[in-house]
Design a protein that fits this description.
The chain is mainly α and 195 residues long. The chain contains ten helices and no strands. Helix 4 packs antiparallel against helix 5 and helix 5 runs antiparallel to helix 9.
Length: 195
């Protein structure tokens, strides 16, 4: 019952976020739509932003759990796919938060995924801190850039099939890019930061 109530709050909040900016949604809207009390809402969440944080963090954790050594970039692709399903939510967050704040919000949640992915691909080899920062930043910025262009309508995709096609194209186009960046970093170490 408790899990169902928490999920009901999440689902209804996402539904509201598809219709209007987060700063126009009230706790009253959520509890009224879910048929629960304010105390019940506060049992699970501190505020509306906590609902969003929890939803994104839980989704990222579950998508990371699907990551396998056979396909180390599967978590990243799954996250892109998840994000693409909530275009209106991201559009409203972009309007409310602005591009810089939304970028910081997303990067904070995705940074460790890219770091873990890089470390997994490196195995027992090491890249300099600077090179790790550059490679991680490259993928974070690329992912966020695609998301923002898509949300703003620069990429014309509406249907689930279109979204899946875009995710598949990202997989095809970026296949081997991380391996090449890491190979180049290992072959040409950052001498300035070598110990």
């Amino acid at each position: 019952m408790a899990i169902q109530t928490k999920q009901q709050i999440v689902d209804y909040t996402l539904e509201l976020l598809e219709k209007k900016p987060i700063n126009k949604i009230t706790i009253r809207d959520i509890v009224s739509g879910c048929g629960i009390t304010r105390n019940t809402f506060y049992y699970y969440f501190h505020d509306i932003y906590d609902v969003l944080d929890s939803t994104i963090d839980d989704t990222i954790r579950s998508l990371e759990a699907e990551n396998t050594s056979e396909s180390p970039d599967i978590a990243i692709l799954n996250i892109i796919s998840f994000m693409s399903k909530y275009r209106k939510v991201w559009a409203n967050l972009l309007k409310t938060m602005g591009q810089e704040a939304l970028s910081e919000y997303i990067m904070k949640r995705l940074h460790h995924i890219f770091l873990d992915n890089i470390k997994m691909q490196l195995g027992n080899r090491e890249l300099s801190h600077t090179d790790m920062f550059i490679v991680c930043g490259f993928f974070e910025e690329a992912l966020f850039g695609v998301l923002v262009r898509w949300v703003k309508g620069d990429v014309d995709t509406q249907s689930a099939e279109d979204i899946e096609h875009i995710v598949e194209r990202i997989r095809v186009l970026f296949q081997g890019v991380m391996e090449l960046l890491l190979k180049n970093g290992l072959a040409n170490p950052d001498a300035q930061f070598e110990s």
